[in-house]
Each structure stands twice: as C-alpha cells, then as structure tokens.
Amino acid sequence: MEQNQPTPQLSYQERKMREERDKEQTRKKLEQKKTFKSFLVGGIIILFVGGAGFFVWSLYDPLGQDYSQAMPFEGQTHVAEGTSVIYNTNPPTSGNHWPIPLTDGIYDKEKSDEAVVHSMEHGRVIISYKPSLSSQTIKKLKDIAGQNAVILLPRSKNDTDISLTAWTRLDKFNLNPDGTLNEKRVKDFIRRYKNKGPENVPGMGGGKTYE
Hints:
By secondary structure, the chain is α/β, with parallel strands linked by helices. 38% of the residues lie in helices and 13% in strands.
C-alpha cells in the first residue's frame, strides 16, 4: 500500500507570490461585480428619467382634440407610374399608387397624388396647403414639417387651406378668422399618426427642401 506523499513546503517567496495572486483575483472579481452593478443602476436610472421626462412632457404639452376622421380603405396595389388613379377623398388617404414614393421632406412644387399615397402607406404624415397661403404661414408649416416621416407640399386641388393626411386618416381646415395657423392641431396630428402606415418604413432625410 502506497503512503501519501508529504506536501512539498513552499518557500516564503512562493507563498507571498501565491497570496498576491489570490488577492489580485479577488480584486478583479470585486471590480467586475461593481462594474455590473454600475451598469445595472445606470440603466435603471436612464429608463426612469426617460420615462419620467416623457410623462412630464406629455403633461406639459398634452394632445388636444383629435379633429381627424377615419377614412375607408381604398386598396394599396402598385400601378405603373403615370397611371391616373381616382380617389374618393380629397386629398386621398389610401388607394392604389405608383411604385416609387416621395422622399421625406419639404416640396415647393405640387406632386402627384399617386406618389404621395405610397408615402402614406409607409407611415408618412402629409401636410398639404393651398398655394395661395401667405409666405409667413408656409414658413410656419415648414418649421413644423422639418422632421422624419413628414412631407409638406402645396396642392391646388385642396378645398381647405390646410389638409393633414395619414393612412386612412384625414383632417382639413382653414386658417383661423384672424389669418393665423392652428399649429398645435398640425403638431398633434403628426404625433398621433406618424409611422402608422401598413408598411412602416423608417423615415430618412426629413426636413430637406425639394422642388
């Protein structure tokens, strides 16, 4: 029967090296735990502050009355570019459309409804206005429309000063009796209906001006 071999004795220097190594490993484990806790606490704080900020902002600027109406769905099939489509609302809020949508942005010239409808299918809010509006009012509309997933353009077929459209939603109105624009009505429509299309595509390049 074999006898257990005696454990070799470590020198003083070897013992010190082992102790230092054990201390270093313990220190690293403690640092890792502290780092994890810091990230965890930081994430919780960010979520809390962000949520609280949104809540406070909502209280400060709550959504007003929703003046828009739900419009019937009229289809969403692609037709060849150049094809004229008859829509049942003015401006249109859904329906067959051309294959290429308008890019997000501010347009100084009128565009075909068939391209605009495709943009709404992708979740865009469309702000259209009578070309006869004052430059001051148009400037205010441009300031509001300078964001992703919003398109601003003149439209002579409009039967009111301002028309706000999103997929199957419509709100249209005239300027106030004193000639001023109800800016909150426009902003609230954007907040409610932006990025709500059946084929939601992330907005890009909002705020740029095109012809």
